[in-house]
Amino acid sequence: MNSKLQIISGKYGGRKLALPVAARPTQNKARIALFNMLDEVLGANMRSQTVWDAFAGSGEFGIEFLSRDWANDVIFTDIDSDAIKTINKNLVGIARNPIIRQIDATVAADKFGAAADVIFIDPPYNKPELGEQLILKLSQIAKPGAIIIWEMENSDSKPEIQDSFIILKDKTYGRARFLIIKKV
Q: Above pLDDT 70, what percent of the chain?
């Protein structure tokens, strides 16, 4: 495995992860910064919840939650069959029973978006409309208090956030921009 992608912290810290062929993984430095922000935002009361990794790719976001014991349940969805195979490969040896589905995130939102406490949205950078569509849907169905982390390509544009959300953090690390919002 030639990937430099690895779990940052927790019981699986340092473990290398496989990447799907078409993956654009979030760089380790950016994920470290993101999880430092999440440590502050989530606090102890938001841990051990249900996490949905909506555009899962390699599954690194959900696996990081499992490694840190921040989630009881993790749901991984992706439309790419190679990504689903990679997620399964990356989960070998992790004693959990995650839900892994090959399904479009906007289609899966009715089921998983309404149940999740933490939702990670990382659509392909060349398809920002997918993130916008999912945010719009989550504005209607996510439960109050749900935390949504939206990773997008860094740009000067301001993403449209519905009034049903408040922005907790908006930070940029290199190419990645993280918008952390909370459903009110």
A: 96
